[in-house]
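User: Hi! I have a protein structure encoded as tokens and I'd like to know what sequence might fold into it. I'm fairly new to this, so please keep things simple.
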């Protein structure tokens, strides 16, 4: 039962990091949960030095957010804590006099909205009947000395509640299992204050009072005087209140503001990145398409080249295999552009390393491997896609970036509509612009006919549109010309121990080298950190003690959260009633002060999720304070396959800027990035999430974060080098090795 507390701007605690200043309205808009959620807010004591118009404007924005929350989740319990009287000194009275207790006039029954303010004093109980129509519970603390009045709404789940009220401290604790509590209030409700306690108990059964005890009212005359003064002050200042109707990102945009994701002007950096991943051009496909002149793994072969200096293979040498691609008629191809992957492995030693493939642009390729272990080694080469298939994949992203359809449900009361959404939409009808104000990330939905843009409820994917030309599907035949092994005779070699004085051999044509290799099933890094083995829960828990691990991304990073939750018996998850795919998820180990959190990234995420839970990674990073006890882990790649690479580049640019800001304010923060990985392919997967798409984005990600103080978990090499089949969600032995790499970054071996 976690209780989350956040301070708002104007909070005058000694100092608050700017990344932790959160407006109540913004926080309320981030909530999704319903009957299991209690929201407690108080905002009054830090506004006394401002004109009343400032305070009322803040209340209005908070009220609108509460209304939106109750509209999408009517069973949410909202509790409002009002102001109270305090001991006065001259200096305190000048800034926070009891003459200026701010009211909650923003929360009224206006416009048929079911919100209510319960006034303190003898009349409090008379308002219970009115409160029974309201989903908002108001805890009134504007009393003298120890006088307390409490009212509650019947929408609360029947059961026992105990409300503890500390005058001048006013800490409200709802002791009920299975509830999530969100506290937004001023600094005087901090647990640091040690003041006397006054208890008031109540029991709610089926929305009716069974027991209500309140302390005896004192100083009624003073209280009434304060109420009359406050009302008089509000009336005198109400005319200065001017609310501005600002355009929000949820308003319809004219067609000329539509962002076309295919024809934006490129920055110099974007041009350099695109040039760095340029793929060899291939001849135009014949019409109609025939397999005869396309790449055929059955008519392709590879040969291991002899040792450069003659003799035998030794650890430290470099092995090269020459690959020749043929077509379905058995003729050698005369141009490049095929997508090949290769690995060197020994099944008995559970050893393996990924090779680097060089395209000679004439139908031949070279796979290069470092020899890292003594014993047997076997070369494997896989044709992932023919060059002709690459031509189709490239065309699809350029001409049909919207072939993966997304929808959103809009709802207000009993009226609901569903419309199409995407990064880029033809502006042939009114659009709702959900472009993020902070990152500039575009997202649009067609405007519902009868509802406003601010009634959007969720986000989900639809079917994939097959937009292939005639017979193009024959280029993506699993087991025929897609993800098929190329056979060769004599693919095994014997590797001897490294000779004394043997010079180190490095390739002059292949860079970079592999990130690491497997030996006896454990991942060993090359040219980087020493990887420790965390083989039991005790070692993992010891490493994570006093750490908060924030995970952002897709389901491939959610696997890490699930792995830690599974192997650590003391890491207890809290049920936030969130979706199984996107979260958010939280798991804590109270004894060791460990917290692990996961949240999926924002659109184009391909999962069903509430629109209020869509979070851009850059924005989440900007909310972190950071520090030596903070670990940030993210990945973002698998859901961008259908878009031009420019869309992915711009998303990474916004994340990189946020990472730089985080490391600038908290240099000790550890930032870890998980790369993409190869996967099993069929026709439908290949058209939206091909390994070729993943490879292109993997290259961009590495270039984007090169030189920054971040760490990489090279999932591409770790999946490619392993003996288990490729999978979007790698099997447990690979995930265990990935977690070992992560933990080795968090807890490096002592020198």
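Assistant: Happy to help. Inverse folding works backwards from shape to sequence: for each of the 751 positions I chose a residue that suits the local structure. Here it is:
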């Amino acid at each position: 039962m976690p209780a989350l507390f956040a301070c708002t701007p104007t909070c005058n605690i000694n100092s608050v990091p700017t990344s932790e200043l959160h407006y109540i309205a913004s926080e309320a808009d981030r909530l999704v949960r319903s009957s299991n959620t209690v929201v407690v807010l108080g905002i009054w004591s830090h506004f006394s030095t401002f004109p009343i118009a400032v305070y009322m404007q803040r209340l209005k924005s908070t009220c609108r957010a509460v209304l939106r929350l109750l509209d999408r989740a009517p069973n949410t319990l909202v509790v409002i804590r009002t102001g109270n009287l305090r001991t006065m000194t001259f200096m305190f009275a000048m800034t926070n006099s009891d003459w200026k207790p701010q009211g909650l006039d923003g929360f009224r029954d206006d416009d048929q909205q079911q919100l209510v303010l319960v006034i303190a004093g003898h009349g409090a109980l008379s308002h219970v009947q009115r409160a029974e129509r309201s989903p908002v519970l108001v805890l009134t603390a504007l009393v003298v000395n120890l006088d307390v009045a409490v009212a509650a709404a019947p929408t609360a789940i029947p059961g026992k509640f105990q409300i503890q009220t500390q005058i001048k401290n006013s800490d409200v604790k709802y002791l009920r299992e299975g509830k999530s509590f969100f506290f937004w209030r001023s600094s005087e409700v901090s647990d640091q204050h040690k003041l006397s306690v006054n208890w008031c108990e109540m029991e709610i059964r089926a929305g009716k009072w069974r027991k209500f005890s309140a302390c005896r009212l004192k100083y009624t005359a003073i209280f009434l005087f304060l109420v009359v003064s406050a009302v008089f002050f509000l009336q005198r200042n109400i005319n200065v209140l001017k609310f501005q109707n600002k355009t929000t990102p949820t308003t319809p945009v004219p067609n000329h503001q539509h962002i076309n994701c295919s024809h934006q002007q490129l920055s110099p950096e974007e041009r350099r990145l695109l040039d760095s991943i340029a793929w060899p051009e291939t001849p135009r496909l014949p019409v109609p398409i025939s397999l005869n002149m396309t790449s055929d793994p059955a008519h392709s072969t590879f040969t291991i080249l002899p040792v450069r200096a003659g003799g035998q293979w030794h650890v430290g040498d470099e092995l090269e295999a020459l690959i020749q691609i043929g077509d379905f008629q058995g003729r050698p191809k005369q141009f490049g552009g095929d997508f090949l992957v290769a690995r060197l492995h020994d099944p008995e030693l559970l050893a393996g390393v990924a090779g680097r493939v060089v395209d000679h642009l004439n139908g031949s390729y070279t796979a290069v491997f470092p020899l890292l272990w003594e014993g047997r080694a076997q070369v494997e080469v896989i044709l992932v896609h023919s060059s002709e298939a690459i031509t189709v994949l490239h065309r699809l992203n350029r001409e049909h970036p919207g072939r993966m359809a997304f929808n959103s449900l809009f709802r207000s009361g009993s009226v609901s509509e569903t419309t199409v959404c995407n990064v880029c939409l033809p502006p042939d009808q009114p659009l709702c612009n959900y472009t993020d104000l902070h990152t500039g990330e575009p997202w649009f939905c067609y405007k519902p006919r009868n509802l406003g843009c601010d009634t959007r409820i969720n986000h989900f994917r639809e079917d994939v549109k097959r937009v292939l030309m005639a017979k193009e599907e024959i280029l993506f035949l699993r087991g025929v010309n897609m993800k098929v092994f190329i056979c060769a005779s004599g693919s095994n070699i014997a590797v001897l121990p490294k000779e004394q004085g043997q010079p180190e051999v490095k390739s002059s044509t292949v860079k970079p080298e592999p990130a690491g290799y497997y030996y006896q099933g454990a991942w060993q890094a090359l040219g980087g950190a020493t990887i420790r083995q965390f083989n039991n829960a005790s070692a993992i828990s010891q490493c994570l003690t006093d750490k908060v691990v924030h995970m952002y991304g897709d389901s491939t990073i959610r696997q890490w959260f699930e792995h830690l939750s599974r192997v650590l018996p003391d890491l207890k998850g809290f049920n936030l009633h969130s979706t199984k795919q996107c979260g958010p998820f939280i798991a804590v180990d109270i004894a060791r002060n460990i917290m692990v959190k996961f949240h999926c990234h924002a659109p184009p995420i391909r999962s069903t999720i509430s629109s209020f839970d869509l979070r851009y990674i850059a924005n989440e990073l900007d909310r972190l304070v950071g520090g030596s006890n903070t670990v940030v882990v993210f990945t973002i790649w698998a859901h961008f396959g259908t878009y031009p690479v420019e869309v992915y580049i711009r998303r990474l640019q916004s994340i990189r800027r946020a990472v730089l800001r985080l490391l600038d304010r908290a240099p000790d923060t550890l930032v870890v990035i998980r790369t993409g990985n190869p996967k099993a392919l069929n026709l439908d997967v290949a058209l939206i999430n091909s390994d070729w798409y993943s490879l292109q984005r993997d290259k961009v990600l590495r270039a984007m974060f090169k030189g920054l103080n971040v760490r990489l978990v090279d999932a591409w090499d770790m999946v490619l080098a392993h003996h288990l089949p490729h999978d979007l969600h790698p099997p447990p032995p690979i995930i265990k090795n990935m977690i070992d790499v992560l933990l080795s970054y968090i807890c490096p071996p002592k020198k």
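A useful reference point when you look it over: The two ends are 41 Å apart (CA to CA). Feel free to ask if any position seems puzzling.
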